[in-house]
Amino acid sequence: HGHRGNDAVPRFLLGSLWLAAAVEVHTAKEVVAVNGTNQRLKCTFSSSSPVSQQLSVSWNFQPEDLSAHEPVFYYLKEPYKPPSGRFKERVTWDGNIERNDVSIIIWNLQPSDNGTFTCQVTNWPDVYGTIGEVRLRVVQKVSFSEIHFLAVAIGSASVLMIIVVTAVIICRQRRRKARDKSKEKESLKMGEEKEPIPLED
């Protein structure tokens, strides 16, 4: 009977340990990158336990069409590149375990890389924890940089000035023509015949 009581103590301790032992993973929610460029997918973690030799990192990828998850990268004591798949020869480790950084770099991004990358860290005894998710969007061009904005603003201002100047010139010419016509009418009424003025070359 007393045996059962002893048995309950370790279970209780394990339960509280399990609640305390959790790895928190932090990532950017969304990353936008230009087609053909390289992109660092940042992932950091915090653990209630000191970093152990058994720490492992798993990066996976789920395409936008929600087809099966694909392995991207694995780390256990050392980085392991994927032996096959779309990320073979296109992913490198860019983390530093001592700084709780488990980031990777994806090289030569393609539109087919649109999807969600997940970063999972286990640090024994912290085997449970959050999974970091990064949604990657690969675009054809930079959507709108500051230089781009500046160029468009200056361009728009220039076009606007040209339109205004043109409008002013046209208005003036029209007024002049109207004035000339009224003058012509007056001169005809008066019966004054002007001598033709020879044009200078």
From TrEMBL:
Basic and acidic residues bias (residue ranges): 181-201
Keywords associated with the record: Disulfide bond, Glycoprotein, Immunoglobulin domain, Membrane, Signal, Transmembrane, Transmembrane helix
Pfam family, any one: V-set
Database matches in SMART domains: IG, IGv
GO biological process, one term: cell-cell adhesion
Region Disordered, annotated ranges: 177-201
Alphabetical list of InterPro entries matching this protein: Ig-like_dom, Ig-like_dom_sf, Ig-like_fold, Ig_sub, Ig_V-set, Myelin_P0-rel
A cellular component term, taken from the record's GO annotations: plasma membrane
Domain Ig-like: 10-137
Matches recorded under Gene3D superfamilies: Immunoglobulins
Localization of this protein: Membrane
Signal peptide start and end residues: 1-28
Transmembrane segments: 147-171
PROSITE patterns cross-referenced by the UniProt entry: IG_LIKE
Membrane topology annotation: Single-pass type I membrane protein
UniProt similarity note: Belongs to the myelin P0 protein family.
Protein known as: Myelin protein zero like 2
